[in-house]
């Protein structure tokens, strides 16, 4: 089967998804973007065809839709894919628009795949293996911090003009549920209660919140604190997991996982492969390639896609509950 792909959005993620498809030997790709500069770049860099108007492509022209547009546009493309029975992959959302149609059509036979990038990331898969093997005993609590100065996210463009500086599609709103995708996977549970803060403390010229601090109680009793910010001038992704028999530490940019025993002795330092970022990018390409491979495997009937919209909805509800909890200054149950 030679699949034909239509990518909506040719910004940072849209171009990445072109590379991911090419890395998986899928070459029949058409892209859409209203910007002539972005279309030209995609055509010249990757040799794909592009269109400047959705009316110029028909449903029969493609088999698979990749939705890499801003989060507030996802719902319309999801409905379009479902109505035309097209497999689709969608970048991480900040809205639930389109979810009602997804759940109504879950037995339609089309593959509906939400992004789950970091579950495919080498160090996180290594951490998952260590925890499952009981290397630090039973998990009791964890602490996680993800931070990076927002203007550094896309240094090639004005951050004030990008969706992640807008209130409803802001970076903190996007990244909290994005990080929960893999944190919940490690904890083998989902949050049942949340309290905390989501607000703006910097002088960044935007409406969006720039910091989120969530205190989480999980269904299995694990406690966690998650700090997401876009004000840290040093990029960080730092995880500490506390167990009955030890502690696991991971700082992404040190490229190491450290394990301490119950006597606080450092018993193991495991090197993590660094991977290969595209020029101008921070994140390695391998995990994105593997993520799209998982989507393709589901389409080709090789294996089910490993992350569902039902689970992603719980992560979005955690974000919404945090926002309600901060507004009301209370603990908020997640339902």
Rg over CA atoms, rounded to whole Å, is 20 Å
Number of strands: 15
Strand order in the largest sheet: 14-13-12-11-7-10-9-8-15
SS field, number of helical segments: 8
Query: What is the 3D shape?
Result: globular
Instruction: Name the helix and strand elements from N-terminus to C-terminus, one letter apiece.
Output: EHEHEEHEHEHEHEEEEEEEHHE
Helix % is 25-40%
Structural class: alpha/beta
Describe the structure concisely.
This protein has 335 residues and is α/β, with parallel strands linked by helices.
What attributes characterize this protein structure?
335 residues; alpha/beta; 6-stranded parallel beta sheet; 15 strands; 30% helix; globular
Description:
By secondary structure, the chain is an alpha/beta fold. Helices cover 30% and strands 25% of the residues. The protein is built from 8 helices and 15 strands. Strands 14-13-12-11-7-10-9-8-15 form a 9-stranded mixed β-sheet, covered by helices on one side. It has a 6-stranded parallel β-sheet with strand order 3-2-1-4-5-6, with helices on both faces. Strand 11 (236-243) and strand 12 form a beta hairpin. The longest helix has 20 residues, at 309-328. It is globular, with a radius of gyration of 20 Å.
Chart the SSEs and their pairings.
Blueprint: E1 5-8, H1 12-23, E2 29-32, H2 36-46, E3 49-51, E4 64-67, H3 74-83, E5 87-90, H4 99-104, E6 112-114, H5 122-132, E7 139-147, H6 171-187, E8 191-199, E9 211-218, E10 223-229, E11 236-243, E12 246-251, E13 256-261, E14 266-271, H7 286-299, H8 309-328, E15 332-333
Parallel strand pairs: 1-2, 1-4, 2-3, 4-5, 5-6, 7-10
Antiparallel strand pairs: 7-11, 8-9, 8-15, 9-10, 11-12, 12-13, 13-14
Helix pairs in contact: 1-7, 6-8
